[in-house]
Amino acid sequence: MEREDLGALLARLIRRIMEAERPLLEAHGLSMWGYSVLTRLADRPMETQQALAKSIGYDKSRLIALLDDLERDGLLTRQPDPSDRRARTVTLTAAGKSRLRAAKADIRAMEEDLLAPLTPTERRHLLTALPRLAQTPDH
Questions:
Q1: Which one of 26, 44, 86, 100 has the minimum C-beta count within 10 Å?
Q2: Which residues have a Cβ under 8 Å from the Cβ of 59 and sit 6 or more positions away?
Q3: Whether pLDDT at 139 is above 70
């Protein structure tokens, strides 16, 4: 029997993961996009709104409303960029870092359950290979 296409397999896996993540994130008062913003800001503590939208693949015109919600919840702050007053930088607050840590802990526990059918070697290989496959090739 021929193996299933990688795209079809990954699409099913992504849907499964997203369905499992959604209630975990909602329990922390976060949407998937909100979680993406907090995760990105944890990696890059001060990011312009435009760079943030591009880095997470989110429409920059819709990002403002999302950032408004996260700022209203005290999870991030926005300030004028000192090098370009028209731009705004986005920074995680202590509350944002705390909420992200809590959400990430729940997600990691869910991932452990998801990966449970794999042997330790299979798990290590998968977790090593996925980041390499996810990298955007330089063109």
A1: 86
A2: 53
A3: no
Question: pLDDT tens across 66-124, in order?
Answer: 999 999 999 999 998 888 888 889 999 999 999 999 999 999 999 999 999 999 999 99
Nearest to 21 by CA among 30, 11, 12, 9: 30
- Record the tokens describing residue 35, joined without a space: 């979680």
Q: How many CB atoms lie within 10 A of CB 63?
A: 19
Spatial distance between the Cα atoms of 139 and 136, rounded to a whole number of angstroms: 9
Per DSSP, helices labelled H in the chain are 6-27, 32-43, 49-56, 60-72, 94-115, 120-134
Instruction: From the options 3.20.20.20, 1.10.10.10, 3.40.50.150, 3.40.50.920, give the CATH code of 30-116.
Output: 1.10.10.10
Where are the chain's structural domains?
30-116
Six-digit token pair at 61?
A: 């015109």
- Global pTM value: 0.86
